[in-house]
From TrEMBL:
Source organism of the structure: Pedobacter nyackensis
Lineage: Bacteria, Pseudomonadati, Bacteroidota, Sphingobacteriia, Sphingobacteriales
InterPro entries found in the cross-reference section: FecR, FecR_C, Ferrdict_sens_TM
One matching Pfam family: FecR
Gene3D superfamilies, per the entry: 2.60.120.1440, 3.55.50.30
Residue ranges of every copy of the FecR protein domain listed in the record: 180-276
Listed GO MF terms: sigma factor antagonist activity
Name recorded for this polypeptide: FecR family protein
Positions of transmembrane segments: 81-103
Amino acid sequence: MKQDYDKIITLIGNYNSGKIDEAGWKELEAWIALDQNNQLVFDRLTSDEKLRAELEIMHEFNAEDNFSEFERTHMAPVKRLWIRIAVAASIVLACTMGGYYYFFSEKINTQSDFAVTNDIVPGKNAATLTLANGKKIALADAHNGELAKEAGVVITKTSDGQLIYEIKDQGDLAGSKNNTLSTTRGETYRVRLPDGSLVWINAATTLSYPASFASLKKRTVELNGEAYFEVSKDKTRPFVVKTAKQQLVVLGTHFNINSYGDEEQTVTTLLEGSVKINEGTLLKPGEQAQLSDNGNITVSPANIEEALGWKNGFFLFDKDDLPAVMRQISRWYNINVKYEGEIPKASFDGKVYRNLNLSKALEVLKYANVKFRIEGKTIIIMP
């Protein structure tokens, strides 16, 4: 059973600051009594003065995801501190291997720590837009405002890093002309399609779509990689997402599709509305479909927070093995991963924020006792 690590951290923060109430203390006591390892974690987080003080700051700070631009700009140092402690505490509480917890101790590996000066920064808000005429626009370098006009549609870039399609001339629409929005490893972006639908695309992803849907009976887009969709409702024109292995049809809904070629399954997670996969399987909100290479589809309850972690700024691991964790890290930090000998048998549960430098993100490996070294932009996992 997955534990609510964020809540446990908050309760410990309350305890450290002397603000825990009776109900909170009872809940914390119950958690401690569940397992002797919980007692060890509690002792560690409440005995180290430095960590204890930082946890108090973390607890006091407003950690909502939707910070205003003012808060993002002027409260960045405090937020960075909160993120650092939240990640550390999540690792303390969550990293497991072989059924045992690994927590902060003096025995943490001293292996191949690379200098901070050579650290790799996290991914960024960037993408490349390819117009129907073949012109490519690097959006990270492009100015804000109007970027292009195509067949009655004006394409603009906003100051918050969003691509917007807006129909200006209904008489000049040509829906057959496709645009492509693509990210490399280490990039992510958001686009508002001409029908008003919003799409967030993850790293190493390509999304192809018409510059206008107005003359089309279906709103069809093609996806290679991972994206989260909030589709505008239009009963007369279904919204269709094609990937290498599936076709998904919706009228108006919120969902996430993970269709990376190096993953064993195409995973569709539904938040709102309904979707039909390959003209057969119907998903309901809160469900997840896993499509294997042989065409079999398995439907199960979804871990929504895990599925949308990338969109909301973090990796959330839920009993993930080492290769699954490293695939996510490699895409976001634009690095390569190699394995020497047998792949270590490690299982990961917990949250790591995506705005951390690589050295901090890799703490999750060290606390799970996974040995590795770094050569340039390649992480080599050792047996």
